[in-house]
Amino acid sequence: GGGFYISAFAIPALLSPYNKGQAALPAKTLQTQWQHLYDTGKRFFPSVAALTSSAYLYLAYNSPQAGNTRELYLVSALSSIAIVPYTLLTMMGNIKKIQTEIKAEEESLVLPRLRGDIVTWAKLNYGRAALQFVSFSVGIWAVLDGA
């Protein structure tokens, strides 16, 4: 849910003054705020995904052979940890663009591009949220299947 929250609520809040006709955050401030969100998530979400994936692997290992429970737990484990390669393969180019967007250019040239890159990042981040949703949903399915 945290990844979904960031894309659905935190990023729009960062971008909202611009949408309401108010003065937009300066590019450097916007970049700094986004970087803080990204760094916080980078420290938290991979650890949670690894812990969750480990728990699902443990459950898969200890599940009886009968039924689909073991396979469902394996799908949950893989979906959970898949946020790491998804980030590296799908999002890293966009992340690097945001982190290096501000150069010696005019603010009026940088800001629209930076805002667009942050919007793109938020859309890509929904992919990570979807992986976590799949992990959770299939994990619940496994619990119900094994009951």
From TrEMBL:
Annotated membrane topology: Multi-pass membrane protein
Membrane-spanning parts: none
Keywords: Membrane, Transmembrane, Transmembrane helix
InterPro entries: Anthrone_oxy
Intracellular or extracellular location(s): Membrane
GO cellular component: membrane
Name of the protein this chain belongs to: DUF1772 domain-containing protein
Species this protein is from: Galerina marginata (strain CBS 339.88)
